[in-house]
Each structure stands twice: as structure tokens, then as C-alpha cells.
Amino acid sequence: MKYLNFIFLLFSLHIVSAQEGDSISRKKIDAIRITEAPKIDGVLDELIWNSASVATNFIEREPNNGTPIPDSLHTEVRIVYDDLGIYFGAIMNDPNTSKIAKELTERDDIGNDDFFFILLNGYNDHQQSFEFIVTAAGVQWDAKLTNGNEDSSWNGVWYSNVKINEDNWTAEIFIPYSQLRFPEKDIQTWGLNMEREFRRERRRFSWNHVDNSKGSFSIYDGEIHNIKNIDAPLRLSFQPYVSSYITSFDGKSEVSVNGGMDLKYGITDAFTLDMILIPDFGQTKFDERVLNLSAFEVQYEEQRQFFTEGTELFSKGNLFYSRRVGSAPTGAVQINDNDSLSFYPQTVDLINAMKISGRTDGGLGIGFFNAVTERTYAEITNTNTNETREELVEPLANYNVFVLDQRFGENSSISLVNTNTTREGNFRDANATGLYLDVTNKKNTIKYWVSGEGSWVMQVDSTKFGTEGSTGISKIAGNHRLSGEVNFRTKDYDINDLGYSSTTNYIRYYGYYGYRYLKPKGNLNNMYLNFNLNLTRRLDPGLYSEFNFNFNSSFTTKKFISFGGGFEMTPFGVNDIYEPREEGRYVKVPSYYDGWAWFETDYRKKFAIGITYDWYVYSEGWRDEKRIDFYPRYRFSDKWKLFLTTNVILNNEDRGYVNNLDGDIIFGQRDRNTIENAIESQYIFNNVMALNLSFRHYYSDVSYDKFFSLEEDGNLILNPDYLENHNTTYNNWNIDLRFSWWFAPGSQLTLLYRNAIESYQEEAVRDLNRNFDNLFNEPQLHSLSLRISYFLDYNRAKSWFGKKHLKEEHASIYNNRKYGRRL
User: Fold this and answer.
1) pLDDT of amino acid 701
2) How far is CA 721 from CA 226, 709, 806, in A?
3) What is the rounded distance in angstroms from the CA atom of residue 810 to the CA atom of residue 445?
4) Which carries the bigger pLDDT value, residue 314 or residue 810?
5) pLDDT band at 805 (very low <50, low <70, confident <90, very high)
6) Hey, is 318 helix, strand or coil?
7) Residue 131: partners with Cβ closer than 8 Å, 6 or more residues away
8) Residues 81, 89: contact at Cβ < 8 Å?
9) Segment (H or E) for 11
């Protein structure tokens, strides 16, 4: 009953705050229709720019929020449109153009750069926008922005060019309607904001004022008016690819050639179908694998572009973890007395995948995702007859995600998400459903939320049902920020067939207070102080789990030196219900105290460093852990840069689970050393061609010196009779050397050399020379691959074949001579 009263209070706050009105001032500009497209060369010399409306009077966003832009940096932007898209011409004054920061990077990366930024929202709902950035070096960056969360994996196909002049630099941009979403209306009103980064002083200016004292950036859009009677072209594009791999592993070589295609089709101006036919993910970035001794699986980042691009609707509620699609098989292998497992697949092949997403004029977002994976078999060899048989470990499987997301009140939403996994035969199936309500008042000072989820796991002889829920309220305006939340999960909550869940069977109470500078004070540009309290209890049966206090801070000086630190403690210890790996059991962990500090120099400089020191101390001699992170970087020139990272973790006398012998849960006391080194170096030839080196070596050794048995009351007692060996050394080595060339709009050639080694030994090898000898005695993977993908727009192809449906003057947009090279 108390939770219902709390929810009623939240809705009462919303009703009151909704009457307060929207205090945001919004600039407006009229776009001018043109009949002849300008050449996108960075030179604004066409007559059409003279007749365009001008957006000016930019306002500083950071660090001096609300200050008018100085005359020396006067900025103005002209906007025009036609039936194919919208054009922007920006002129940005600079008193010393020789000092404009213009570091070359790969596409979708921003370094030490001045840049021009466009934020476009076709629905003018202040919640979801497309972002387009072009740097002073001519490099493109784009993303989707949803309620303040950026999805930079989205790659649009648009055109831009820049030019540095005597007293300013200019940017010219064309964004086709095919890259945007907007309602079917005769007269359009779009949300718009634009920004300019003045890098050498690290100042940013926006066209419509962004008040950093409340709300998120996306709610401060101005508006474009007067876009009328758009005869938008059909949104249909294909991206065929061909790839070839030469792979060598353990003395065996293999050559393969693949081909396939991605398809994008605009079902309407608002909804898009994305489909991948015959997928190929052989050039995705390597996973940063680690030695995992915890009770939970490691959640690795999604690297496959199809599963990262345009998935903002599907990420609602965190029910969808796309790595489940095509991940490791779920079935076990039946091994008889004379059998040996000769092959067990690590992944499952994806047959195809598709997604449909978009939003109606009424603000209803609809998303549908579907993927099908192939039957997968393990190989088992009979040691007597040498015969090999196959055993099914993953059947044909279908994965679905369905999302409804209704926006209202400009900055609030209610969402329904359903995920479903269906496997043929007698394998497990699963379903999960979530309902989410997020409400922010119109003054953008208070936010509150309520959510509920249910999970069903269906097996041949049983069905498991679990729930999760949360509710909270937060003050999101001013120097002082407050937040409170209650959330819970039952012990049978399980979304791991298509989502990711780790801890279950808890109720957690969370409180937060934060203080921040909204404008520079004294020698500081900004300051953040954050205080967090967490109280967690086991739900069934009830048991105290943890009380945690955390303080963390961050400071940036006027010279852009950043530093901070924090402190965390569990003064009453922890009853850990997960480490024993058995339901109903727990282990008592004594209190710990953790302090850390970090420091970073100014990243505008050629040489910059960052360092973090972290020290855990447990009472009763349980654990002493020190961690040092060191990450220097050096920019040799605007084309060549080098990043180094070293992470060292020294963990002494840690205690953790090692085995379960018929109910006797064994813990071990262990020392563990982990060293991770990484190098990344980039040489950027120009804004469409780059060479990138990525190297990572991860090493971790574990040495046990005593073992314990876990008592029913959570205590550990010494077990001198347990003598099994659990010492371990794990190495993971990866080198990627990649050459990338964006040879045409949306089209890419990638040549990749990959070297990978992995070793696992049942001993603690702490001599580094011996460790590397062991590592390089393991089989190595050598792979050389070439992948070429080509973006083919239906309208461009139509113009190439002389179709009359595309007007001649508009067909010139797709002519390379008109645009020059794509940046």
C-alpha cells in the first residue's frame, strides 16, 4: 500500500508541475525553397545563399553558460531546402584562422577539433533528434539522440565540405530526407539547434540557448518553419558487400569468399525497414576478454554494426542484449564412457535479421526486431572406433523484440517492450515483457518513473516466472540535485535468453544528493560532488545484504586540468548471496573501505596523461587490492597519434568460490595479479582514408594458498583436507591492423590483418619471460581479410539510367562532379 501512495504522490507532482508552463524560449527561422542545388564544396558563393534566412546571435553553452558569443567569433548559418533534402551554410569567424584546431580522425571520431554541429528533430517533440557534425578537418560524425542518450553507431549518408579562409571557416552541408524522419504533412515544423565548438578555448556556442541548470540538451531546440510540400524521393537503398578471408590456425589454412547485402526501405516517411541478408561479421572488433572468477557472466559490448545502429527503441528497459543473437549454444552434450568432445562451437550462425522502426505523427514509436539463427552441432569422437558423430547443441531459433513507445508532454513517455525466444524441439523458450513510465514536468525540474517487468522461461516440464519493478523521483534542476528510488527483482527473474540479468532476489533502496557548479567560479570551470546511499536486502527469505556509502567528485580548472576522487565503504559488512552459487546460501564478507583519486592533463595539448589510483582495504584480513590505471597519449601531428593504456591490479588474500562437493561449498584464499596493456595508433591520410593499429594484451594469474568450507551461517572454516589445484594463468593477445577507405558516399573498403592468441594454464606463472614463452607456444590465429561494401541509393541508380521520374536538376545532386569527394 505504501508503494501505491508513493506513486500517487508522483502523479500529483506531475499534475501540479504541468500547470507551471514551459519557460523555454525558442528561436525560429524560415527555410527557403530553392530550384537549383548548390555545390557542396565549402564555398558559399552561389546566389541562393544570399536569399536565405540567417540564423545568428549564438549563445555560449559552456563553460560560461548564457553569455553572448563575442563579435570576434560571430557565427551565422543559412538554411535552404528542395525536394531532395535540406542544406546548411555556416560562416564562423575566427580572429586567428591559423590556430583553428583541425586534427584528422576516422569517421565518427572527434579529436582536438573545431566543429559545426546540427541537431534536427523532424517531429519537433524535443525527445529524439539526428545529430550531424563536420569538423574543421572535414571529418563527419553523426548519431541519434534520444532523451539525452547518444547512439553514435548510426551512420547516415550525407554530404559536407569545409574551407578555412582568411578570417573565418565555412561549412557546407547537404542532408537528404532519406536520412531523416518526419511526419507526412504539407507544412513541416522541425526542431533545430546548432552549435559551434571553439576548441582552443574549449568554448561551445549554441544557436538556441541551452540552460544547463535543468533538463537535457535535446529539449532546448529552436524551430525551422516554412518547409512546404516536400516531394520526398523514395527511401530505398542497398549495400551489397563482398569479403574474402585467408585464415591460418594451428598449421591449418583456409580461404573463404562471402557475399551478402544490407537493405534499407522507407515504408513511409516515418518508418524504415532494415534487413541484413547473408551476414558477415568477420571484421568486427575483438572482444576484450578477461579471466572471470565472479558468479556472473561477463557482458561484452556489441560490435556488430547491424545490432548497434538504429536500436534506440529496442534498448528501452534493457530487456534486449543483442549479443544473445548468435552467441554460444545453450545445449549440453551427452558424453558416454568411450566418448571425447572433439569440437564444441563457440558461436551460432545467424541466417538473417531485420528490424522495422519509426514514429507516428502522434508520437507513437513502433519497433519490431526479428532474427533467425541456424542449427548448430557439436562433434563427439568415439575413442574405441574413432568414429565421429554430431549432436545438436542449439536448434533453429527465432528471436523477436516488439516495442511501443508513446511520447507525451514533450519530455515524457510510456513504453511497452516484449521479447520472445522460440527454439524448435525440446529446448527452452522464453518471453519477457516490461512496462515503463517516465514523466518530467514542463519546467524540467522534477522527473519520476515507474516500471514493471515479468519474465517467463518455458522448458519441457516446467515454467519459471519472475518479476522486476522500480519507482523513483529525482530533482534534475539547479545546483542541488536529489534522487530516491526503490527497485526489486524476484529470485526467478530471468531474461538471459534475449536480455542480460545478473543479480536477482533483492530489494534495493537508493538515495542520491549532488552539488555542481553551473558556471565557472574562482579557478574552476566546473565542480561535481556526488553522495550515494544503497541499502540492499535479500527478498526470499528476508536477509540483510549490504549498506553502501559512496562519495565521488570531479573538478576542472580554468587551464583544463581535471582531477577528482572518492570514497566508498560498507561499514556493516556484506551478506553475499551470489558468490556461494547455490540458492539459499550466503557468505559473510567483512566491511571494506575504498579510496581513489584521478588526474588528467589538458587534452588539447600534444602530450597528455591520465592516472588513477584505487585502494580497497577489507577488515579481518580478507582482501587488500590496489589498482593503478595509466593512460598517456601523444599527438605527433594532425594526422598521427598514439594512445597507451596500462592497468595493473594487485589483489592479495581475496576469498572466493572454487567448488561444490555434494553440498560442501569450498572457498579459497587467493592472490591475483592482473596486468593489461593496450596500444592504439592512428595515421589518418585524409578525411576518407585511415590506418589504425589496435593491440591488447591481458594477463591474469591466480594462486591459492588455503581453502575453507562455507557454514550455514555464512562463516568460513578452514578445510585443510581440500587439496585440489585451482591455480590459473590466463593470457589474451590481440593485434588488429586495419586500413579503411571511404571511397564513395556510404561505401567502404577495409583491409584487416588480425593476430590472436589465447592461453589458459592450470598454474600461476608469475615470471613474465616464462609466461610469454608459454603464450607464444599456443596456436596462433593469423587472418587477412578484405571487405568491400557499396552504398547504392535507388534514386541515384535511377538517375544513372536516365529515368524521367527524377528531375534533371535534382539528379545532379548525385553526380560526383557536383559534390566532389565525400568527407
Assistant:
1) 96
2) 83, 10, 83
3) 47
4) 314
5) very low
6) helix
7) 117, 118, 119, 141, 142, 143, 144, 145, 150
8) no
9) helix 2-18
pLDDT digits (tens, 9 = 90+) for 126-150: 888 999 999 999 999 999 887 777 8
- Write b or e for each residue in 448-478: b if 16 or more Cβ atoms lie within 10 A of its Cβ, otherwise e: bbbbebbbbbeeeeeeeebebbbbbbbbbbe
Residue 319 near residue 400 (C-beta atoms within 8 A): no
SS3 category, 813: helix
Gap between the Cα atoms of 160 and 664, Å rounded = 67
For residues 261 and 565, what is the distance between their CA atoms, to the nearest angstrom?
49
pLDDT band of residue 801 (cuts 50, 70, 90) is low
Q: Which cell is 166 given?
A: 582568411
Mean pLDDT over the full length of the chain: 90
Which one-letter DSSP state was computed for residue 808?
H
**Which H/E stretch holds residue 366?**
strand 364-373
Residue 68 DSSP symbol: B
667-698 b/e with 16+ CB inside 10 Å = b? bbbbbbbbbbebebbbbbeebbbbbbebbbbb
Distance CA 609, CA 649 (A): 19
178 contact partners, CB below 8 Å, separation of at least 6: 85, 157, 232, 233, 235, 237, 266, 793
Q: Which domains does the chain have, with CATH numbers?
A: 24-231 (2.60.40.1190), 234-281+297-445 (no CATH)
Question: Other C-beta atoms within 10 Å of 620: how many?
Answer: 10
Give the residue carrying C-alpha cell 537493405.
263
| Comparison of pLDDT for 310 and 757, the residue scoring more | 757
The whole-angstrom separation of Cα 376 and Cα 423 is: 12
List of residues 6+ apart from 590 with CB closer than 8 A: 573, 618, 619, 620, 622
Q: What are the φ and ψ backbone dihedral angles of 742, each rounded to 5 degrees?
A: -90, 90
CA pair distance 227, 229, nearest whole angstrom: 7
Cis peptide before 233 (omega within 30 of 0): no
